[in-house]
Amino acid sequence: MSGILELGIMLFHVMVVIIILFLVPIPFTWMERKVAGHIQQRLGPMRVGWHGVLQPLADGIKLLTKEDIIPDRADRLLFKIAPIISLVPPFAVFVAVPFADNLLLSDMNIGLLYILAVAGLGIYGVIFGGWASNSKYSLLGSIRSCAQLISYEIPMGFAVIGVMMLSQSMNLSDIVNAQADTWNIVYQPLGFFVFFIAGLAEAQRVPFDLAEAEGDLGAGYHTEYSGMRFSYFMISEYLVMLTISVLCVILFFGGWHGFLLPLPPLLWFTLKVGFFVYLFMWIRFTFPRYRYDQLMSIGWKVLFPLSLANILVTGFFIV
Amino acid sequence: MTEMTLLDKSPGNESPIKEILLNLGPQHPSTHGVLRLLLQMEGEKIEALDIIIGYLHRGNEKLAESFTYTQIIPLTDRLDYLCQPSNNLAYCLAVEKLLGIEAPERAQYIRVMMTELSRISGHLLISGALPMDLGAMTTLLYVMREREMIMDLMEMATGARMHSSYVRVGGIREDLPEGFTDRMLEFCRIFRARIVDYETLVDKNRMFLRRTRDIGVISAVDAIDWGLSGPCLRASGVDWDMRRDNPYEIYDRLQFDVIVRENGDCYDRWKCRMDEMRESVKMIEQCLAQMPKQGPVMVDMPQIAFPGDKGKVQASMESLIQQFQLSAYGFKVPAGETYVSIEAPKGELGFYIISDGSEKPFRMKIRAPSFVNLQVLYDLCKGYYLADVIAIVGSLDPVMKEVDK
Is there a single domain that holds both residue A107 and residue A11? Predict the structure, then answer.
């Protein structure tokens, strides 16, 4: 009996997290458009609701009612499942994320490794989507994202090793608790730098949004997608952005630990994550994008050696 | 294009690597209109490309043969639609040369001032559009803000934002309205500061520099051989500007520097335009200072110019006949042929007109700078990446309406 109850409670928790995550893109799209507007000397959406707060809902209705177009000669099966493949991993990541003390679904010993591994799977959606569309623009977008993947995943993985060495754990709660006094950013500025830049690439945001580069590829891998399938890609992009922001906060900025103001831990966590999300948007509307060979050379020639040096220096100080 | 191998698929000529044939345009976010490129790529590296134009062809040159000389002015508006006064000016100078007349001094100053204003407008758009094609969207919206001010000034002086048809054979259509000078000076003051804004946003940005430096390089010799002109030529280090070297109107009375850069890459072409905008602001201010405060803005020749005072048309029979004759039949231009070119924002804009003595030109040929500049694209893009093609097209700054005429 208690087993069924436990299962029920667990399912309930999972549902709550999934629903919250599905709702996350709503404020994010609004925020992104507002941030874009104000950076670009415009107002952004103003018509639907107070200062356009209902704009994401209007967009959602529009996307739901759009015709779902599948191009001729597309690989229909892959074309249909690619958005879902792209959508699932960002959700799965949040199983291991501690939002506050003891506020998490599963306290894994290898939470960090799990997150990095699962988050990396999302790229398959992009690759399949571009491949299945049977369009050259989509295909080029996919090729670029493959090239991008191998360039940033390794520096990203290496960048967090410094954090693991400091907290002697891969459990995210332990990592946060180890930062109760001093945040990791103090000891690991270089690690954060590498992690954040690789994170920008992971989230496919400017300056590394080569896979969708609207300037040269139309819309890259999701050129041929429309309606809800397109919005799946958008939701997954926002969730990956959220994942990277959450990881930055947990690994380098003390998770739910605050300073000066005695705010509730969850609020501190949300504020910090919100700041990083804003940072992503700020960067998007300020910088141009790199060419894909330039991204690869940054990944291999700059980030990779830097992350190795970071491990070396950290190891030196710990010993 | 003898090196073009797109259609040459004879056996023995097949590459072991599978090439991609990519069709870029005519509807594409970064082709600045309806330019269509057929790219043959190995991966993302450009092996060969074909430029396909003509999607906006309206037969301006042929149309001109059945229009009177005044009716052609609106046609020239629609060449490089970002800088209409330049096009008007080049055409009117050619007709004036055939007629053997010259516009009054005040009209010349106003013409030059408006031309420089439109140069800023044209350069502004591309200075913002090039970073946007590379992903930095914000710059475009910044320049649009200033372009709006230019549009307002244009509307104030000419009554139209885009197709102003302001310059007429023998002068300009109307004198400047009251309060224009002050607003122009205010614009110059604001704009000076704003150029610095754009530069802070993009000029020192390493990503922008990496995307534009040493991309699409053309040497001075090649640039001359291909017939490049305007900023594209000066960016390669050729010190040639029609405004200084072959002055027309009152350019010889203005103090300005000709911006010349060395490398001939995308960045230099972009930067050249940025600096030229500063020079244009200088020129506008000098025009405003030197301009005679009073005086006619149209030649006093009833057979060419409309009666200056509209009230006269209702009051005097001669003026009414003059107005009717000019509107209905136009004016006759002595037989002969001429070529006049000016330094338009995109480069050397020339009009070649043959007159048979009637009201309509026998033949009109436009030397459109965008068209000539665009032909260098094949050489510039070869060996670079797909993403660079976008930067190169943007830095050449073709206006497709001018290319297709």
Answer: no
The residue ranking higher by pLDDT, B174 or A212, is B174
CB A157 within 8 A of CB A164: no
Q: Give the DSSP H or E segment for A269.
A: helix A265-284
Q: At what angle do helices A123-132 and A136-167 cross, to 10 degrees?
A: 170
CB-based contact, A282 to chain B, within 8 Å: no
Which tokens sit at B304?
A: 């060419």
pLDDT digits (tens, 9 = 90+) for B295-331: 888 888 878 888 777 777 788 888 888 888 888 888 8
Q: Residue A169 is encoded by which pair of tokens?
A: 């754990």
Q: For B230-287, how does the pLDDT look when each residue is reduced to its tens digit (9 = 90+)?
A: 898 999 988 888 888 888 888 888 888 888 988 888 999 999 999 999 999 999 999 9
Whether chain A has a CB inside 8 Å of the CB on B386: the answer is yes
Q: A34 and A162: one domain?
A: no
Residue in B with minimal Cα distance to A213:
B135
Task: Place B3 in a pLDDT band, splitting at 50, 70 and 90.
Answer: very low
Size of interface A-B (CB pairs under 8 A): 81
| pLDDT for res A236 | 87
Judged by CB atoms closer than 8 Å, whether chains meet at B136 and A294 is answered as: no
Average pLDDT estimate for A263-286: 87
Residue type, B221: V
Q: Which of residues 87-146 of A touch B (CB under 8 A)?
A: 136-137, 140, 143-144
Subunit contact A41:B133, Cβ cutoff 8 A: no
Q: Is residue A262 less than 8 Å (CB to CB) from chain B? A: no
Residue B5 has pLDDT above 50, yes or no: no
Each residue of A49-102: pLDDT tens digit?
A: 888 888 888 888 888 898 888 888 888 888 888 888 888 888 888 888 888 777
A42·B141 Cβ contact <8 A: yes
B153-185 per-position pLDDT tens digit: 999 988 888 888 889 888 888 888 888 999 999
The closest alpha carbon to A291, from B6, B213, B134, belongs to B134
A152 and A56 in a common domain: no
ipTM of the complex: 0.81
* Contacts A292 to B, Cβ<8 Å: 44, 385, 387
Q: Are B307 and B281 in contact (CB under 8 A)?
A: no
Longest dimension (CA), chain A: 61
Domain extent for A235? 70-318
Q: Which numeric CATH code is attached to B60-299+332-404?
A: 1.10.645.10
How many structural domains comprise chain A? 2
Domain positions in chain B are: 60-299+332-404
Smallest CA–CA distance, residue B258 to chain A, in Å, is 29
| Least CB–CB distance from B387: residue in A206, A216, A286 | A216
**Same-domain check for residues A31 and A102:** no
Tens digits of per-residue pLDDT, A127-175?
888 888 888 888 888 888 888 888 888 888 888 888 888 888 888 888 8
Q: Is A76 at the interface with chain B, CB within 8 A?
A: no
Question: Which of B39, B44, B395 is most worth mutating to test chain A (most A CB atoms within 10 A of its CB)?
Answer: B44
Give the end of a domain, one of A65, A81, A116.
A65
Tell me: do A259 and A145 sit in the same domain.
yes
Same domain flag for A39 and A25: yes
Which of A199, A125, A208 minimizes the C-alpha distance to A157?
A199
Residues with Cβ < 8 Å from B402, sequence gap 6 or more? Answer: B79, B80, B346, B368, B369, B370, B371
Give the residue from B134, B205, B211 with the most A CB atoms within 10 Å of its CB, the best one to mutate: B134
For residues A276 and A222, membership in a common domain is answered with yes
Same domain, A31 and A132: no
Q: Name the packing angle between helices A227-252 and A136-167 (round to 10°).
A: 20
SS3 B349: strand
